[in-house]
């Protein structure tokens, strides 16, 4: 599903969880950016088949036209409301802008515009049900469909707060279907989510991670009922990476190594504590975790793939693997994608390049 200029074109797909950081600006770049043509779903299908190990899923370029020739535009929804609902006080909320997020839940499609206006549409009637902005100064930053309790979580900032702090609200899909978006309730009210604080929704483990920059405390909540499970209070924690079942805590770098901890995502129990040796006077480009694999890259150094279970180390030459701008881990395929400029590369965890494409 893609949209442009406040018009949503539906061709099918779903959204995943993500991390949203607090920012003083009412709108900014997103992980999911709308394109002009409805082609992202097709591209994803092609990529899945290209990297699949099953022979019956692979196909040549000559088959693509036949496989996708029946894709047609089904419906078109418009989120734009030039009059402004609920007596909006922010002028940019009334202006037409790009669609940056689309979430589908049952028979409802939610579309979020870059301006911060979010609308819900019925697939059955092909009409707009309601807007999700329940306050005249609310700017919605992101959406998350919580399948655990069939609700939609909105993450917003407010003009009255100078757009400096994230506020989360959950609303049952049934209430939205009835046109009652204000029937929801606030989440994580005790947390100060001002920049650089954040909230991260982990759909795989059914958890929510929040970071309060004011007191340097990370908290993990249950995504089913939003109860607090445990807290992590350590000012030396620089980053937290989440994988199925575990969390990686990355601490402040010392002169010759970076301290690391692996925790159980369920209760915060420390499963392993270790140090990873680093080259002195070289900055760390990234540290990423994929299940038991740890990926470490320093400036002008080889990529290191460490198996934390047995300390087995694999290196990829810096001339073959250059620092990417983004990662996507493919858990089902045990592969990972790297994005650099206009090139997408597919790697396995033996450090081998599987394929690449522009």
UniProtKB/TrEMBL annotation:
Pfam families to which the protein is assigned, alphabetical: DUF7899
Coiled-coil segments: none
InterPro entries attached to this UniProt entry: DUF7899, WD40/YVTN_repeat-like_dom_sf
Protein name (record): Transducin/WD40 repeat-like superfamily protein
């Amino acid at each position: 599903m893609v949209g442009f200029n406040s018009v949503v074109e539906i061709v099918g797909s779903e959204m995943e969880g993500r991390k949203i950081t607090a920012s003083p600006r009412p709108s900014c770049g997103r992980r999911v950016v709308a394109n002009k043509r409805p082609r992202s779903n097709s591209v994803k299908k092609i990529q899945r088949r290209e990297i699949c190990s099953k022979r019956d899923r692979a196909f040549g370029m000559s088959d693509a036209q036949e496989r996708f020739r029946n894709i047609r535009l089904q419906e078109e929804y418009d989120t734009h409301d030039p009059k402004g609902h609920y007596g909006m006080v922010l002028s940019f909320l009334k202006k037409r802008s790009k669609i940056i997020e689309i979430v589908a839940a049952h028979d409802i499609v939610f579309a979020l515009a870059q301006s911060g206006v979010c609308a819900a549409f019925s697939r059955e009637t092909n009409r707009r049900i309601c807007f999700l902005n329940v306050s005249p100064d609310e700017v919605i930053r992101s959406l998350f469909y919580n399948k655990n309790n069939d609700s939609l979580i909105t993450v917003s900032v407010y003009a009255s707060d100078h757009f400096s702090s994230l506020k989360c609200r959950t609303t049952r899909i049934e209430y939205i279907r009835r046109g009652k978006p204000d029937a929801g309730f606030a989440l994580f009210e005790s947390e100060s989510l001002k920049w650089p604080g954040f909230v991260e929704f982990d759909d795989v483990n059914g958890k929510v991670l929040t970071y309060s920059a004011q007191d340097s405390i990370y908290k993990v909540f249950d995504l089913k009922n939003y109860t607090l499970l445990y807290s992590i209070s350590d000012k030396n924690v620089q980053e937290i990476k989440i994988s199925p079942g575990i969390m990686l805590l990355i601490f402040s770098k010392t002169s010759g190594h970076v301290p690391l901890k692996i925790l159980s995502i369920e209760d915060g129990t420390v499963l392993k504590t270790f140090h990873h040796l680093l080259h002195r006077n070289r900055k760390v480009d990234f540290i990423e975790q994929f299940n038991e694999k740890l990926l470490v890259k320093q400036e002008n150094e080889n990529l290191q793939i460490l198996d934390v279970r047995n300390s087995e180390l694999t290196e990829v030459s810096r001339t073959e693997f250059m620092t990417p701008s983004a990662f996507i881990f493919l858990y089902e395929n045990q592969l990972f994608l790297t994005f650099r400029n206009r090139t997408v590369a597919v790697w396995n965890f033996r450090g081998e390049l599987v394929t690449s494409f522009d």
